[in-house]
Design goal:
Length: about 120
């Protein structure tokens, strides 16, 4: 990599990092909260929303995001949005993954409290 490109790469990386937040210390298990754009934001740009995500699709999305096997999924409403709460078994333990039903965005991955 050319020395002139290093500041550009660092700048882009710095811009990307605030999108993900974690409430855990490095090396410790914790939850990761994502902040995907809302469907209202997309519609404001003239982008039409895709059809709602099915429970099976949410389970597949959650399994891939957490790196494991989806076990079950339930529905909950949070902040006026329908979410699928998917239990996923991973090599490091059971995770709970929240998938937004309107567009399939992963909102949060955290250790399963009932594990």
């Amino acid at each position: 990599m050319k020395p002139r490109m290093i500041p550009a790469v660092l700048f882009v990386t710095t811009l990307a990092l605030p999108g993900c937040q974690s409430n855990s210390s490095p090396g410790q298990a914790g939850s990761t909260r994502f902040d995907p754009p809302s469907t209202e934001f997309a519609s404001g740009l003239g982008i039409t929303a895709p059809p709602p995500v099915t429970r099976d699709q949410a389970m597949a999305i959650a399994a891939e995001a957490a790196g494991g096997t989806a076990l079950s999924a339930g529905e909950e409403t949070e902040g006026g949005e329908l979410l699928y709460e998917v239990k996923v078994q991973t090599p490091s333990g059971r995770k709970e993954v929240e998938v937004r039903a309107s567009d399939g965005a992963v909102v949060e991955i955290e250790p399963d409290d009932n594990d």
